[in-house]
Amino acid sequence: MSETPSSEEPRRSPLRTALKWGERIVLAVLLLFAFERLGPQLSAWTGIGPIEGSVPEYEVTLFDGSTLSSEDLRGKVVVLNVWATWCGPCRIEIPALQALHDDLGDEVVVLGLSTDIAPRGTVESWLKERRVDYPNGLLDGATRRALGGISHTPTTFVIGPDGVVHHKVLGLFAPPAMRASVRRLQRDAATAADPTSLSLAERP
């Protein structure tokens, strides 16, 4: 007489169960990482999603000896980029920031703040060698705190004419997303000033 197979499922070993949960945790961490990095990029590109919302107040000393404050920049769109000479993604990103400065420098302020601990002369030479001429200085402690702390390099803030941070992007900022966010803020500002006008930001 044959034995009837047990209807009970075999129990999983503790090791197999632990591995299964480990896979789920790793997947969740990867999804959170992707959302943290790609979410702000997509929001900057499309304008969909909440704005960052902070209003940082700061004053920085630039390499040319002049000072620039958040109050000075009211009325203009600002792209504030925290970077370092040793940072690989920063080196990739800086040409796009320079191009934005070249194209829209009269309308948009591109501001670089370096986290380098090297002498300022070394950082200045690094910029000159690469023909970077948009405003740059060193990130000081007060400005770091005003920006809510810096955990990644690069970190880029897209700030509206009202001083409100609309987008905060950690890591390399895709140039199309960067330009789309800037153009949208320009268009919104122009529309607010004159609802019947077509903004320069609608130029291709």
TrEMBL record:
CDD domains: TlpA_like_family. Residues 49-187 form the Thioredoxin domain. The keyword Phosphoprotein does not apply. PROSITE patterns: THIOREDOXIN_1, THIOREDOXIN_2. Pfam families: AhpC-TSA (PF00578). The keyword Ribonucleoprotein does not apply. It comes from the Bacteria. Keywords: Redox-active center. PANTHER family: PROTEIN DIPZ, THIOL:DISULFIDE INTERCHANGE PROTEIN DSBE. This is TlpA disulfide reductase family protein. It comes from Gaopeijia maritima.
